[in-house]
Sequence to fold (200 residues):
Amino acid sequence: MDVIMAKNRFAEIYTKYVRREGSDKLFAYLENSDFFTAPASGRFHMAQEGGLCTHSVNVYERLLSLVKADLGDGYAEVYSDETLAIVGLLHDVCKVNTYVVDYRNVKEKDGWVKKPFYKVEERFPYGHGEKSVFIVSQYMRLTAEEAISINWHMGGFDQRVKGGSYSVSEAYDKYKLAVYLHIADVMATYLDEERGEKFQ
Fold:
């Protein structure tokens, strides 16, 4: 999915389902940031222009598919289309304005050459999932389940879990949407997306 296609798909889903007060201001924030052109990571999945938006759409599509497969046609009685769009599309807004292009020397057969790479310049070191919750909450209210799901979407990869926190287990026990979102994120990252850096 190219940058324009990903942005159009994101906007289509967002404007169709996310109608909460403040959602228009949040979308304007995303448009005025690098959300639609930023990579999803510095050197892992979708480390390319537009990767963050593409990843967000991929996670939403995986999430919707998982929920429908598990809950059937009545899924919307459990999770509204708005809730699924919010957590799927916005789980990684913590990465907005975080990556910059820098250059490093790389040895090739003909000698050393300068190659571009994405460098992390964290301007607001608030964490990962919790930072996404913080940013979204500046514009619109989240339900407890939406906030918990976004907060813990990294699962065992979350630095708090690596530090010994058991809260993710409690979150997954109480909020099944958090489980669906984590699985959707893993599936999109490892099954749907390119690995490594890609500069055009």
Residues 18 and 82 are 5 Å apart (CA to CA). The mean pLDDT is 94. The radius of gyration is 17 Å. The chain is about 50% helix and 10% strand.
